[in-house]
Amino acid sequence: MPAGHDLQIGEARAVMALALLAALADGRNEDRERAELRRVADALGGELDVPALLSDVLVRRVSVSSLADELTTPETRRLAFELAVGVCDADGLRNEAETRFLAELGRQLGLDQPAIVETAVTADQLATTPLPAPVAAAASAPAAADLDRLILDAALLNGALELLPQTLATMAIVPLQLKLVHRIGRAYGVESDKLQIRELLATAGAGVTGQYLERIGRRLVSGLFGKGGIVAAVATGATGALFSFATTYAIGEVARRYYAGSRTMSTALLQQTFVELLQKGKALQAQYLPQIEEQARRLDPSKILQLLRDG
């Protein structure tokens, strides 16, 4: 989002409602998907009153056109579209129903075709970035220190990306988490594809669409999509809303236990372990916050795609 515009609460609610509509645009409306949306809504609650927004979305008390009318500036309209595209692509390249939804959203927001295409192409590049090609299995178990460093580095990077105002940075976090889990699995001799990794995360309680929505809500409330970027985020204390460091840390540690245990963890154990590690990640975040902030200052938003390909 271009710098220089702060979202009012009404605009933020409209943007969040459009993101929720995007999450349901795939047409599946599965019980687990709805349960994940309710979990996210309850977790956010607060100023945006996301549970009420979700209720409005589910019973169709709001529409794309009515929400678009609440966004009165080019910046907020572009932001709403970019975030909706990110939601649709969070769990893989969007399907036909999601493509139709985004086309209608772009029309209702009054965006020109170049703006729509630019956002869609960028999101597609993130969603389709391949995992590294298979390699020969390691001869021995991975060193604990190496995995410690791998997980911490990934958590620091995603925490830093969350501080950047660009929506591209927000879109890159989930693909980087998928790569982290893939690298951990590979260290234990397992080659997993994106579908398998997303299923593992969803089972543990870290579903990628839910993560993306929760991140949007936290950023909207904290003003991380507004003016000033990283400098303003640090100055106003918005770093307290950070979500991605702890989540990425917990995902990495859960993956380590899952693959080290020959992928035999039950659903209940996966979920319990993730909750415990998420709390540990939140505690660690305070310790590493200066490093997260410094890394955010050094990140070049124009190189995020390359960062994902190299990460």
Task: Kindly describe this structure.
The protein has 311 residues and is mainly alpha-helical. The protein folds into two domains: 1-128, TerB-like, CATH 1.10.3680; 132-311, no CATH class. The mean pLDDT is 88. It has helices at 9-23, 31-44, 50-58, 64-69, 74-89, 96-108, 113-128, 144-163, 167-187, 194-204, 208-222, 229-235, 244-260, 267-298, 304-310. Helix 8 runs antiparallel to helix 13.
Fold topology:
Elements: H1 9-23, H2 31-44, H3 50-58, H4 64-69, H5 74-89, H6 96-108, H7 113-128, H8 144-163, H9 167-187, H10 194-204, H11 208-222, H12 229-235, H13 244-260, H14 267-298, H15 304-310
Helix pairs in contact: 1-3, 1-5, 1-11, 2-3, 2-11, 5-6, 5-7, 5-9, 5-11, 7-9, 8-9, 8-13, 8-14, 9-13, 13-14
In short:
With 311 residues, the protein is mainly alpha-helical. The chain has two domains: 1-128, TerB-like; 132-311, no CATH class.
Features:
311 residues, mainly alpha, TerB-like, 2 domains, globular
Question: Can you summarize the main beta sheet?
Answer: none
| Unreliable spans | none
> What form results from the Cα inertia axes?
globular
The helix-strand sequence is HHHHHHHHHHHHHHH
Number of domains: 2
Count of helical stretches: 15
Proportion of helical residues? over 70%
Compute the CA-based radius of gyration. 19 Å
Number of beta-strand segments: 0
Strand content: under 5%
Distance between the termini: 24 Å
Structural class: mainly alpha
